Amino acid sequence: MKVDFSKPYDPNKVEKNIYKKWEKSGYFNPDKLPGKRPKSFTVMMAPPNITGHIHVGHALENILSDIVIRKRRMQGYKALFLPGKDHAGIAAQYVVERELRKENKTRFDLGKEKFLEKMWQWMKENGDAIDQELKLLGLSCDWTRGRFTMDDEYQEAVKAAFEHYYKKGWIYQGKRIINWCSRCQTSISDLEVEHVEEKGSLWFIKYPLEAGGFITVATTRPETMLGDAAVAVHPSDPRYKNLVGEKARLPIKDRTIPIIADKEIDQKFGTGAVKITPLHDPLDFEIALRHKLLSYEVINQQGRMTKEAGSICMGLKTLECRKKVVEALREAGLLEKEEEYIHRIGRCERCQTIIEPLVSLQWFLSMRELAKKTRQVVRGEKITFIPPQRKKIFLEWLRQVKDWNISRQLWWGHRLPVWKHDPVCIPKRGREKDIEKCIDMVVSKTEPACKHCDARYKQIPDVLDTWFSSALWPFATLEWPQKTKDLKTFYPTDMISSAREIFFLWIVRMVFSGLEFTKKSPFKTSYTHATVLDQKGRKMSKSLGNVVDPIVMIEKYGTDALRFGLTWQTMGTQDIHWSEEALVAGKKFLNKMWNAARFVLERNESPPEALLALRSLGEAGARGDYFKKPHPKTKEDRKILESLKKTKKEVTRHIDHYQFGHALHKLYDFFWHDFCDQYLESSKKQLGDPALKTRTQEILVLVLTDCLRLLHPFLPHITENIWEAVRASSKDLLMVESWPK
Fold first, then answer.
1. Is residue 493 within a helix (H) or strand (E), and if so which, with residue range?
2. How many CB atoms are located within 10 Å of the residue 93 CB?
3. Could you give the residue ranges of the DSSP H alpha helices within 254-332?
4. What's the half-sphere exposure (Cβ side, CA atoms, 13 Å) at 352?
5. Contacts of 698 (CB under 8 A, 6+ apart)
6. What are residue 249's phi and psi, to 5 degrees?
7. How does pLDDT run across 119-137, given as a tens digit for each residue?
8. Is the backbone of residue 33 left (phi > 0), alpha (psi -120 to 50) or beta?
9. How far is CA 449 from the centre of its chain?
10. Of 65, 49, 34, whose CA–CA distance to 498 is shortest?
11. Strand (E) or helix (H) holding 521
12. 70 in Cβ contact with 140 (< 8 Å)
């Protein structure tokens, strides 16, 4: 027996050694698993960003995925849990820029080349740290297949995807209203704008009518009125029916603008009359297109007022300009009133800068055909969503999805494979007449050469939205577009686990990308797990100081206790209110398991006859089950065996339905109450009866070993450690033994 049961169970002395044994065995790699395994089962890790340490959400997500993969491995599947990391575009660049600010430097002080070297250095240091933290969670990942979204092979997949879309005419360049972060100096996705309710003001401004009188509009952003092109009302609003078609004078700028009617106007907001600023509001931009209004850009990409804003505000920041405009309106007697107003402010998810809607020349992916095809597949039940209501949310988002702005003005990320022709053309000898045939812009995975002149092409500086590359994750990690053995074996994947906040950013995009590039759904099940909140029900954030570090919890209680605590609270997909008490309960349960195992083993001879008799039946490993069903001799025997049978069935069903907390609760109740409190106590008397002793020993071993196998996906370290004692002569680890049938 290798395990010393004379000492109390100490996870800190056990867990790291057990993990080293797993790694040394090679069994994390599905190609090295014992026995014939004709079926594969694949789980792709949602790759953590290289922005820092893992958080408790990462811990929950990956522990639940590991429960699934460990069970499937024990069921004889060729099980792959593929890990990885995401380069995280804007998020990672922001973090490194923040580090530079501590040295009073900016990325521009370093220059692009040196800054990118800094980014790769950051990735190396933090990427390795993230891997080590994930290993501390006990994850049975195949680290030999680990991927990073900026690996050379992955970059080739991204280029291939871009070129594919471009050739189909679905990628185009155009001027649209986008979300602009003046600090990060890039466009960002609608889904990456954090809308926060803040206290502000609603200003009521009187616009003089040419025919006499005023029309009053309400706005939360008076500085943008300098770019107004019209005043708009709803066509059915009786208050303004006679004013549609009339002219008003724009205060301060003293410009004549029309009064128009549009069905998009909310009659209940303010006075029902609103200002239209086409270049600084998405809705106003669409209204301006419909009514063919003039446009005026009054805010630039630095978040400052332009020359078009006039001398009163030119060069000022928007909030500085706001004060000037309000003051000027008040002096002119055109500010009717100001009211306190709670409204939602869009802020950059990363740096919290207020987002400016600006018109910008960007690259877009047309979503019409992709959305249509994806809706058909999802309606056809090709993907199972857990919880089921996520399917309806998925379809609704696709119904109203807009074209995807895929370009970003960052330094870190996948460069668009788009090349611009040098404006100066030097014709090749004898080809002077062909100079007009030079193509201005080319999409190519490698640097193109002009057929008609000696000028060079230069790659444009824009990079792709991080989620463009992440959308390829389920198959690019298996070396698509190459037709590899791994792609054939492990794709489509079986399940993906993710948080709610990246459902549209990632899950939806993986589905339409998988369908477009592989003609298959990228996964069979999309599991959206709960969010871990603090005890007060608030989201965890550094600003609130309520973040739970899973590594600190591991140091305090051990990995298995953390796995127990998080899984114990995962009852369905309702959000979890963090409770350290669940980890305390987990640690107590581990001690209960340890003491129960000691009791069972101490009640057997050395070598125990019951163990040897049962062991001889179990050499098939994952290909068969270990034990013949013992014939019960007492009421207690029959009761525990019947309860065990029911527990095996229910636990298997719960895990298969992603009811992780329910499965663990069932196991806890059976082991603690049915086995320890009842059968172990009754077995003390039975072991003293020669007629019952051997059969009681068999049942004790049977129940213990089945419990170890059932609990292994949840508590892998302690179960593996006890297994060493129970299966002293076996060469195989518990992680590849068979799942109880």
1. strand 493-498
2. 26
3. 282-291, 318-331
4. 3
5. 610, 613, 614, 627, 630
6. -105, 130
7. 999 999 998 999 999 999 9
8. beta
9. 40
10. 65
11. none
12. yes
Number of Cβ within a 10 Å radius of residue 113: 9
pTM: 0.90
Q: How far apart are CA 176 and CA 282, in angstroms?
A: 9
Q: How far apart are CA 270 and CA 595, in angstroms?
A: 70
Q: Sheet containing 356-365: which strands, arranged edge to edge? A: 186-188, 171-181, 356-365, 404-405
List, in order of start, the domains of the chain with CATH numbers.
25-163+465-491+534-556 (3.40.50.620), 186-357 (3.90.740.10), 579-736 (1.10.730.10)
Contact between residue 276 and residue 287 where contact means Cβ atoms under 8 Å apart: yes
Strand partners, 361: 175
Mapping DSSP to helix (H, G, I), strand (E, B) and coil, where does residue 181 land?
Answer: strand
- Asked if 591 contacts 719 with a C-beta cutoff of 8 angstroms, the reply is no
Length of the chain: 741
The helix or strand, by DSSP H or E, that contains position 57, with its residue range, turns out to be: helix 56-74
Give the Cα separation of 279 and 297 in Å (integer).
6
At residue 431, the pLDDT reads 62
Which token pair is 372? Answer: 């249509």
By C-alpha distance, which of 507, 490, 421 is closest to 459? Answer: 421
The confidence band for 731, taking pLDDT boundaries of 50, 70 and 90, is low
Residue 184 main-chain phi, psi, to 5 deg: -75, -15
DSSP state of 740: P
Give alpha helix (H) positions in 111-253.
112-136, 152-167
pLDDT (mean) for 39-43: 97
Q: What is the mean pLDDT of the chain?
A: 91
Percent of the chain topping pLDDT 90: 78
Cross-strand pairs, 42: 80
Structure tokens at 425: 């053309």
CA distances in angstroms from 397 to 104, 379, 391, 650, listed in the order given: 43, 14, 10, 36
Integer angstrom CA distances of residue 185 from 178, 264, 301, 355:
12, 31, 7, 11
**What are the pLDDT digits (tens) for 698-711?**
899 899 999 999 99
Task: Name the DSSP letter for residue 24.
Answer: H
Beta strands (DSSP E) in 14-146 are 40-44, 78-82, 84-85
Question: Whole-angstrom distance between the N-terminal and C-terminal Cα of the chain?
Answer: 27
Torsion of CA 160, 166, 168, 174, to 10 degrees: 150
- Is the distance from CB of 203 to CB of 403 less than 8 angstroms? no
The angle formed by the CA atoms of residues 78, 529 and 20, to the nearest 5 degrees, is 45
3-class secondary-structure state, position 528: strand
Residues 402, 406, 407, 408, CA torsion sign: positive
Question: 358 and 280 in contact (C-beta within 8 Å)?
Answer: yes
Other residues' Cβ atoms within 10 Å of the Cβ of residue 174? 11
Going by DSSP bridges, is the β-strand pair 576-577/193-208 parallel, antiparallel, or unpaired? unpaired
Single-letter amino acid, residue 187 = S
pLDDT at 52: 83
Q: What are phi and psi of 458, to 5 degrees?
A: -115, 135
Q: Report which secondary-structure segment, H or E, holds 315.
A: none
> How far, in Å, CA of 418 to CA of 77, rounded?
43
Rounded Cα–Cα distance for residues 385 and 470 (Å)? 20
Contacts (Cβ under 8 Å, ≥6 apart) of 735:
22, 25, 27, 70, 73, 74, 140, 712, 716, 720
3-state helix, strand, coil split of the chain in percent (to 5) is: 45, 20, 35
Look at residue 66 and tell me whether its pLDDT is greater than 70: yes
**Statement: residue 519 has pLDDT above 90:** yes
Buried b (16+ CB within 10 A) or exposed e, 472-511: bbbbbbbbbbeeeebbeebbbbbbbbbbeebbbbbbbbbb
Q: Which residue has the tokens 């869009």?
A: 346
DSSP string for 618-664: -TTGGGS-S-------SHHHHHHHHHHHHHHHHHHHHHHTT-HHHHH
